[in-house]
Design goal:
This protein is an alpha+beta fold. 30% of the residues lie in helices and 28% in strands.
């Protein structure tokens, strides 16, 4: 198996990440999954993730193959859900993406392994995330990883709900 590294995304890698996310958006659109809309995710969001040191990438040599944002930010819609863990120190996964050319090689699993390991080392009680209900692949992915279904939230301009999941650490 090839050797991959996971590291923080640096400011000079901004455009590479934006292009990766655009490729993912186009690939999803081509198969009728409207998970990400025209203006989301965008360069401003990626730049903020980099500035906050929340954005990580998986690379082979110097090529960025996928990304994941990890922080404590929870959308206001999350407040209506009955989460497994009631304590406040939870990690939240945002914008997990693997370039379409490299999907199916276990890179998303490696990024989630990284997230779960980081959460454990940093004393988080759980990991929370949402996944577009119209994307059956990502639904299976999180269920296989033993994430518990919590409920649904809706975000603007998306025709379907996002299923929310949580895993205790």
């Amino acid at each position: 198996m090839p050797s991959f590294t996971i590291s923080l995304v640096l400011s000079h890698q901004l455009q590479t990440v934006v292009q990766l996310l655009e490729a993912c958006k186009m690939a999803l659109d081509e198969i009728g999954i409207q998970q990400w809309v025209k203006d989301y995710p965008n360069e401003r969001i990626v730049m903020q993730d980099i500035k906050n040191q929340d954005l990580f990438c998986i690379k082979k040599e110097d090529q960025i193959l996928g990304v994941i944002t990890l922080n404590e930010y929870q959308d206001i819609e999350y407040q209506a859900l009955d989460w497994l863990h009631k304590k406040t120190k939870v990690m939240v996964v945002h914008r997990l993406a693997v370039h379409p050319a490299f999907q199916g090689n276990g890179l998303a699993s490696l990024l989630m392994d990284f997230a779960e390991d980081k959460a454990q080392k940093e004393g988080y009680y759980s990991i929370r995330l949402d996944a577009y209900s119209g994307n059956p692949h990502i639904q299976r992915f999180y269920k296989k990883r033993a994430y518990a279904y919590i409920g649904q939230v809706f975000f603007p301009m998306r025709p379907l709900a996002f299923n929310c999941f949580e895993k205790l650490i």
